Amino acid sequence: MKKSISALVLLIAFTSQIFAQKTHSPSPITKVDYTYRINDAHCHYVDFVQETEGIGVLLEQMDKAGVDNIVLFGLPVTKLWTDYDQERPIYYDDNDAPVYYYSFTDVILAEAIKALPKQQKDRIYPMICGFNPVDKNGVDHIKRMMKMYPDLWVGIGEVFFRHDDLSRMTYGRNPTANDVSMEPVYEFAAEKNLPIWIHSDIGDPMSNKPKFLYEMEEAIRNHPKTKIIWCHIGDTRNVVVEGLPEITTRLLSTYPNLYFDLSWVIFEQVVAPEGKLDSVWVNIFEQFPTRFLVGTDNIGGFSDYGKTIRKYEVLFDALTPETAKKLASENMFELLPKRSGKNN
Ligand SMILES: [Zn+2]
């Protein structure tokens, strides 16, 4: 009897310990106390040789950085390691070797997401990018991916058009946003309500003039039902185009289907040069609070993830709390198609 009582006591103690552990165990998503939680609207799961630190590392970094959800792309091109290069290039600008379109990038991303538990899967908003934009068959790849992975994809991108040195490294004809081959993609995107993220340099470092603006403007104007996110406001390395604030304001006033993301060099080169915010841009964000997104533009490596996403802190502090919240998190959800059973 005594033995069975002590066994019972032990059992109760053990059960209550389990219960205590269960109730006090941390949630899988660690909430970090930032003033503004962020949704990262621009990140690549893989780099220019299609490698990645992994989805687990990315999710861990998102937790640490106070990022709840993420728009995640593969990378549509991959770098050639040629016979004549002793050192393996990783980034496109590591050497002059060409890059080629790599459709499997979408499968790499889809498979990584598929393997996640639902709670983590729901935080990721994947996009299809692995097609050649000057191929009229490009849209078929998008349709194929949607058939292979139903209910997964929520958009298209990042599609590369003019992209500094990357353009001349890419095999084949250089793609532009107004290329006739893109027509079926824009139309399909509108039909299925898939927003499309586009990289298209507005100018080049030779002139700092908006030489290529007309290409994007034609695509935006001719497809009013397609939601287009012009990444980095068309800015690229070493380019600060004259009159960019006026161009941005005019485009936003004219085309309700246009959005911009502030990822990559636009922030350091234009919005906050040398860490000092330009008030002209702060006013534009206040004037069009629903049309801008923030993002890391990390590519496959996530060691500097927190630093990259939290660089916007200085901007959030300068905005009204309502606008800051929109840029930090709300605009991304407003833009994305609703998914059943998801939090947007
Ligand atoms: Zn990018």
SSE topology sketch:
Elements: H1 2-24, E1 38-44, H2 55-64, E2 67-73, E3 77-79, E4 99-101, H3 104-114, H4 118-121, E5 124-128, H5 138-148, E6 155-160, H6 164-169, H7 183-191, E7 196-199, H8 213-222, E8 228-231, H9 244-254, E9 258-261, H10 265-271, H11 279-287, E10 292-293, H12 305-309, H13 313-318, H14 321-335
Parallel strand pairs: 1-2, 2-5, 5-6, 6-7, 7-8, 8-9, 9-10
Antiparallel strand pairs: 3-4
The structure holds zinc ion.
Overview of the molecule:
It is a single chain. The protein has a single domain, classed as Metal-dependent hydrolases (TIM Barrel). It starts with a helix and ends in a 9-residue tail after the last helix. By secondary structure, the protein is an alpha/beta fold. Zinc ion binds next to strand 1.
Order of helices and strands: HEHEEEHHEHEHHEHEHEHHEHHH
State the low-pLDDT regions, or none: 1-28
Indicate the CATH class.
Alpha Beta
Strand order, main sheet: write it out: 1-2-5-6-7-8-9-10
Number of helices: 14
- Describe the main β-sheet briefly: 8 strands, parallel
Q: What is the overall shape?
A: globular
